[in-house]
Amino acid sequence: MSESNKRTAEESVESNKRADYHGKGIAQLKPEYIVTTGTHTREQVDDEEPTTDRLDGMNGATKGNGKKMKKKRGQNKNRDNRQLKEHNVLCPKLIQGDLTNCTFGDKCRFNHDIDAYLAGKRPEIESTYFAECPVYKSLGRCPMGYKCRFLSSHMESGTHKLLTKEVNNDNVPIYDINEECNHITYEQKTALVKRRFAFTKSDTVLEIQDALQQEYRDITETKEQKEKAPQVVQREKELQEKRNRQKELQLQFKDTRYFAAEKKPLDLYRKKILSPLTTVGNLPYRRLMKQMGCDITYSEMALAVPLIQGQNSEWALAKCHKSERDGFGVQIACSKAWQAAKATEALVGNLLNTPTNGINEINLNSGCPIDLLYRQGAGSALLDNPARLIRVLNSMNYVSGDVPITVKIRVGTKDGHNTADTLVKRLVYETDVAAITLHGRSRQQRYTKLADWDYISTTSKSLRDNELAFNESEQGKDARDKRQKRIQFVGNGDINNYEDWYKHIEDDTNMDSVMVARGALIKPWIFEEIDAKQHLDKTSTERLTILQDYSRYAMEHWGTDEYGIAQCRRYFCDFMSFFHRYIPMGICERYPVKLNERPPNWIGRDETETLLGSTNSADWIKLSELFLGPAEENFIYTPKHKSNSY
């Protein structure tokens, strides 16, 4: 074959390759990085806000006898996240080596023989990136003591004495680095569990709301006069006494903004905001984001009722790192006003007056699309019942002290039936919310289509128009002193690079800022791009450094004992389920890549880059071993999504 014919044939193959992989919804890569062999393809699912494992457990899905089970696909609900139990358990009182701490003495069911415990303990972690205990190196002491999987780095080999330092390796006092805020004490939690916490403000505001609602019920109610039993007469007498009290409240608070109160100023203008992210938006990840330039962070969504009941799993979500204290919001979800009021009062009452308080706002999630919450009337179901949503927000505002209340909404619940532009009018006139965040998709749409930024702009204009009209009205003049001067408006959806961020802010002057969600999971340095106003293509080495920082923060948060390392590995893999989706700029033929575009099978510019882009969860575990040591043979990890969240 002549050289020209050979070149023509090669060009034909390359042209066919381009045609095959440059279809709609496909990221355009340079041909030399496209892999045509192999059967694995990158699929697409629609879940940006996956259900938490807590919610999956509430769902109670079981096998029905005689029923054919559906094949697993899409989101993997009821994941098996069981962690193996230690067989050789050291007494918790002896973890730091003080043999006099245990009050149970010989009756204690745990191991008191430190030599025997150390002899039967699992081998120490051999980590490529951590030669010594990262917690001891950072803090000057390790809270896990003898249970630490890096024990030799802070224990004298001959005497088994645990080592501590007054300062860390960088001469910073201990605990000045890893301070975590918003801790609830055992006594406070017990008061909630045993129903001893006094929900004084909640009871008051709920009584006011009930009185105002009862007035409407009285107007529409038709009474029939007939002979009644004595018990009924007594009951009606008691009800009438209650109604008399309600009428007094109704006369007192009718036509007033009973929920209005002065709040701390909330500044979101042009701030770099990270969206609340269920499961993956944990404290170590948010700490990483603060390190990479984020201004405002939010907790994972906490459910109101478990907060009221004092459940550990929910109160743990309210914790934040001290680096977040200047801009941290706690997000809650609920279906009724009493839940919102009591959860908010519990948060404020237990955390606000502590030295380590880190709550700048409390955010109501009325945009969550999860079916379980929607069926309960929470999340985006509140958009279908604006009157209830308003009662929820007003009850929160009444009990929150000086902490501002904000709300996150969607364009609506159904495709083609957007309601946000009319809802914001009621939020202006009937609530005192400090900020509104709008996700540019409906609940029904989920994440299969691009966010509707044109409608987000329509809603922001509606907000400003109604805000102006309200401020000029008599009602607005009366409320002006106590409410925020301007309801801040934040757009959300499909922000994947600095160009998207600046475009939406500059195109819409009615909008204060833009919130970033998946884009910050796939490309954690997106806030650095926003500051630099340029695309940054991190090398595989730089991306490994990001994973190293995440692993260190995870171990400082969950611990370096056997259980803590397993937790770190599980959340590391959850993070990788998004992080692997980054397509290096250097292999792209067209950049930036849209969030809903998936690439063909590709290889990176080096082996590590290829590994970092793997869709195989076994490779994520392999990557975790660089930082957390070899995984146990029976370590269980099931990805949240079969197709890894494209």
From TrEMBL:
Residues 85-115, 127-157 form the C3H1-type domain. Pfam families: Dus, zf-CCCH_DUS3L. Keywords: Coiled coil, Cytoplasm, Flavoprotein, FMN, Metal-binding, mRNA processing, NAD, NADP, Nucleus, Oxidoreductase, Repeat, tRNA processing, Zinc, Zinc-finger. A zinc finger (C3H1-type) spans 85-115, 127-157. GO terms for molecular function: flavin adenine dinucleotide binding; RNA binding; tRNA-dihydrouridine47 synthase activity; zinc ion binding. Residues 65-76 have a biased composition (Basic residues). Its EC number is 1.3.1.89. Residues 209-252 form a coiled coil. Belongs to the dus family. Dus3 subfamily. Catalyzes the synthesis of dihydrouridine, a modified base found in the D-loop of most tRNAs. Specifically modifies U47 in cytoplasmic tRNAs. Catalyzes the synthesis of dihydrouridine in some mRNAs, thereby affecting their translation. This is tRNA-dihydrouridine(47) synthase [NAD(P)(+)]. The gene is DUS3.
